[in-house]
Design brief:
single chain; 351 residues; alpha/beta; 5-stranded mixed β-sheet; 3-stranded mixed β-sheet; 12 strands; 41% helix; globular
């Protein structure tokens, strides 16, 4: 396992990512850090997310960004952003896993999306080939777990690239004075189908959950909150149970059947006392699923950004891969609007 704590400490000194002042400075809670794991395919989404992060009340907090090693050069424009620490998968993943991740990406890009999915199905049914378990979606989840369990912060907030942060967002969305906060949307178990059902069942198996509740937590979006010590304990118990590094439990699970968020939630549900956890409704989150009309997307996002009780907006339009709308058609317009409305240096959308 790479020592992410040492990596972050060294980089903090080099890039001066401690609390910095802004024109609208608020007091930072040094126990909170934000984490984004991304890649070249989401760089335009990331550019917008980072811009809205900088314009929000979260701007005084440290933001750790991990990108795939071969994509690192594309993100160099962000390296010296105040409070941002740019790392690669090579900094985070164990060497053997990083090597297999690179190989899996080469094979996946050569085979294409459809054949990659077929190979993933073969892996689930026959246990072969190995490489689908190491594709980007899976190793991104490992990066989140490694970072969240090793950094020297009590609370780790994962924010994916497709999230847009409103001016109303605040660190109080993620913390409580005496309890661990975990977002929750509870649904009857019998109503769960498809990938959500797979994620929940595999998560309960990995967490050795002995408590089968009729209501299950179906929140799998970001922002997502990890309590470092709880996650570290969960991964430690998993490692002891399989008698090897915990990440092998995930890599040996059927591809696309497990979730880092699902595992953590299942662990909390099965081990923690209810009075130690605040199952908080993410009522300040909104989602956009249809991006077929760029002007509608732009208008909807801008309206949401001006709505005080909306803090986070996620554009989920391409999550299933079934729709291939050009995201730059609306991302550039939203970013232009945000750049015009701020005095800070502007980011442009690359051509």
């Amino acid at each position: 396992m790479s020592d992410i704590s040492n990596t972050v400490r060294r980089s903090s000194k080099e890039f001066c990512i401690k609390k910095h002042s802004t024109s609208s400075e608020v007091e930072s809670d040094e126990s909170v850090v934000f984490v984004t794991v991304t890649w070249s395919g989401d760089i335009e989404h990331f550019r917008l997310m980072r811009r809205t992060f900088e314009k929000s009340k979260l701007a005084t907090y440290q933001h750790i960004v991990i990108v795939q090693q071969e994509d690192l050069y594309l993100f160099e424009e962000f390296r010296y952003c105040p409070g941002l620490l740019l790392l690669s998968t090579q900094d985070i993943l164990p060497q053997t896993i990083e090597k297999k991740r690179k190989r899996a990406r080469r094979i996946s890009e050569s085979f294409g999306r459809h054949c990659t999915r077929i190979c993933g199905s073969l892996k689930r049914l026959l246990g072969w080939p190995e490489w689908p378990a190491y594709t980007g979606w899976h190793t991104q989840q490992l990066c989140k777990l490694i970072v969240a369990s090793e950094v020297e912060f009590d609370t780790v907030v994962v924010i994916d690239s497709d999230v847009i942060i409103s001016p109303s967002a605040a660190v109080s969305d993620f913390i409580s004075i005496n309890r661990i906060v975990c977002y929750a949307e509870f649904t009857e178990r019998k109503l769960i189908r498809g990938k959500l059902r797979n994620w929940i069942l595999e998560s309960e198996r990995l967490a050795m959950s002995s408590r089968v509740n009729e209501l299950v937590n179906t929140y799998f979006d970001t922002p997502f909150i990890f309590h470092k010590e709880s996650l570290k304990k969960a991964l430690g118990e998993l490692s002891s149970r399989i008698d090897k590094a915990w990440y092998y439990a995930f890599l040996e699970s059927p591809p696309r059947r497990w979730s880092e968020f699902g595992f953590y939630k299942a662990y909390l549900l099965s081990t923690a006392e209810n009075n130690l956890i605040e199952w908080r409704s993410p009522s300040f989150c909104r989602y956009i699923y249809d991006a077929s009309n760029p002007s509608d997307v732009v208008n909807t996002v801008l309206e949401m950004l001006d709505t005080p009780d909306i803090h986070y907006i996620t554009i989920h339009s391409q999550a299933s891969g079934r729709k291939q709308w050009d995201s730059t058609c609306y991302l550039s317009d939203i970013l232009e609007h945000i750049n015009i409305s701020t005095e800070a240096p502007a980011y442009g959308v690359s051509e």
